[in-house]
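Forum: Protein Structure Q&A
Topic: Joint prediction for protein chains with partners

I've read a bunch of threads here and the consensus seems to be that you should model interacting components together rather than docking separate models afterwards. I'd like to see that in practice. Below is the full input, 482 residues plus whatever partners are listed. Could one of the regulars post the assembled result?
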Amino acid sequence: MSELQIGFLVYPGVIQLDVMGAFQVLSFPACTQVHLIWKTLNPIVSNEGLTIAPTVTLSTCPPLDVICVPGGGIGQIEMMKDPEILNFLRQQSKSTQFVTSVCTGSMILAAAGLLQGYQATCHWAFRDQLAMLGVEVLPQRVVIDRNRVTGAGVTSGIDFGLTLLGLLFDEEMAQITQLMMEYAPVPPFNAGTPETASKEVVASLLQFGQPLIDTFLTQTRETAQKFNLNVDSEGALLLEQ
Amino acid sequence: MSELQIGFLVYPGVIQLDVMGAFQVLSFPACTQVHLIWKTLNPIVSNEGLTIAPTVTLSTCPPLDVICVPGGGIGQIEMMKDPEILNFLRQQSKSTQFVTSVCTGSMILAAAGLLQGYQATCHWAFRDQLAMLGVEVLPQRVVIDRNRVTGAGVTSGIDFGLTLLGLLFDEEMAQITQLMMEYAPVPPFNAGTPETASKEVVASLLQFGQPLIDTFLTQTRETAQKFNLNVDSEGALLLEQ
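Posted by a regular:
Agreed with the consensus. Here's the joint model:
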């Protein structure tokens, strides 16, 4: 079998675990080749301060079987309005087997016009913003709609990766990978979603994250306008009829 | 509050998600500084082909509050017999608040003499080898014994990281981090342990992994001999009375 070409977009401010959870899964089969794609080969710095070395550039990236876009912190804003990046995603997506994302990476896919008319998911704190971009958002951890496969927040990249591996190969390959990674999670707390976390925990995180959410919202409105999507003053989506 | 100094040993052949799961957790609080430690600042390549840039060397690493040793593929063998690395771990461990590991990193801690007399855990496929090094192995995902905190295989680094964050700060900080990472896992299969995976899946992975397990076993026997631990021909542990 020729190698399956899988590419993750990386960029300054990317959330490293959005990439690395799925990277670990998808790089396990001997017949996959996983690329980290950026404009240059110069190392970029993640949202957490991790240095990530791209392995191919936009121009040297081979035609991909899977393109995956991870989410980011404030650095993601630049990706949502960068014509070079959005055009790269559109071009690759014409021939890939799967167009995918983890976390708020789905907002970049939507900014490229690649998720409108599809069901998708996103980090819980940004699902309303993904909906503002004309995407049918499902509150699930992994959403498959035709050849679009999207994951929810950060750690969902592992669930996403295993699901995708099952689609690319078969369930046995995905299960062998899961066993290798000993993925039998036992979270020490039950605070992984706003529905299960305490009010105090949700409030603390939202207070911390509000500046980021607000900055994203400004960009989301601008992107929505490009698609002639009406967004009212409350941020709710009024789809053009 | 002065910054909490947290250091991960990295090395050629390290399993990247052993590091990156816990890295994502432990780098979230504003008051932690997370280091990636190696002999030089030259990038190293993980078991999966990821380039990782160390941030400090053995000699420039500050006194740590937490030292964490991740597991590796074949590259781990070198760490288990490298006096410079083992000595660094022993020196740092004298003053750290917590001595920790993810996956087979506990075998490196044991090779440094830092887990004998403690309860600890390890990737499921190597628990018998960790026991051969004189460690009381518990088949748990995270084990806390005094100031030793160890995680099981690869993805357990997330459970480990959240548990440790709860110990370093409080449960609320750990829960806020869990919510940010949307850690409410939904594995698409139930194959994360040999007990829950099908016999075929276990057999396939063990067949694939047997050369690595055998190579580890040779090193484990050598390390056990250094500690005057008797290991019989079947590999079972006969602790010196």
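The longest helix of chain A spans residues 199-226.
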